[in-house]
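Researcher: Here's the sequence for the chain we discussed earlier.
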Amino acid sequence: MFTAVSNMLTFSAKDLCTRGCMQLKYLMEHPEARQQPSAAVYYGERFQKAVANTIPNIVGQEMGGSYSNGRITINFSNDIVCKDDTIVEVKSVIGNAPDWYFHSSLLQCAFYKSLIMFGANNLRTSSFYVNEGHERIYHTIDIHRKFRYILVFGEEKYEITVNRPEQIVGFFEYKGECCENWELAKNWDFKYKQLEYNKLKSFFSYKPIF
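Model: Thanks. This is the structure I predict for it:
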């Protein structure tokens, strides 16, 4: 979600990864148009909980951070955070996942990791998670510079390495700033919509974990 407060635009990192610029602009003006959670979302939540139950050193689920450059603020929430400075993003997979879903998941992890590398390393249980009754208290942790970011993609696991976090963060900063008016949003979509992974894949890498 995002709002405009004192000329500051606030986005969720997931929205910046998964929505087009014109769609973000539309939802900025019509927040009531947001869809309600689907059955797939609830299935994903159950899958995340099942994964979390297998991790012995967990600090908490849905622990978020925030990054701001003075013009926009980007909020993000990590699915699972562990005591050994390992962060896990969980994606449920039903059947054969299309390439775009896998690529989008990888890019989301790379973006979240980049934000933490940029200094948004103080993570706290997200308010929405507490308000939904999942937690009674807020957990906090400071993530150190050398940390692991893992994608659980169905039955598969991958470790994400970011080599140019400034390129990834800068790309999405620009996308957020283009939501200020329709013309900028339209131009951004024309140049980059559904091409985000291809534009940014040289700035991070991933490897399977067996």
